[in-house]
Amino acid sequence: MKQLSPKDRLKVNDAIWNENIEIPIEHQQIVLDRMAKSEKNQERLLDWDEVSKSL
User: Fold this and answer.
1) pTM surpassing 0.85?
2) Which residues lie closer than 8 Å to 38 by C-beta, 6 or more apart?
3) Which has the closest alpha carbon to 32: 19, 43, 23, 44?
4) b/e for 4-35, b at 16 or more Cβ within 10 A?
5) What is the pLDDT of residues 3-55, one digit of tens each?
6) What are phi and psi of 52, to 5 degrees?
7) Rounded CA separation 15/8 (Å)
């Protein structure tokens, strides 16, 4: 992606974030399952500020 011109980067960004894209139901279910797991087991979640310091 670094090799792309700013104009081409914008085109790629627009393609990725196109609102007309359809997310498969299987992918939606994976996200919903993960959200449910995180709500039930919040102690396993990490704080982003703490994690980002170790990157």
Assistant:
1) no
2) 44, 45
3) 23
4) eeeeeeeeeeeeeeeeeeeeeeeeeeeeeeee
5) 889 999 998 888 888 777 788 999 999 999 999 999 999 988 899 999 999 99
6) -65, -25
7) 11
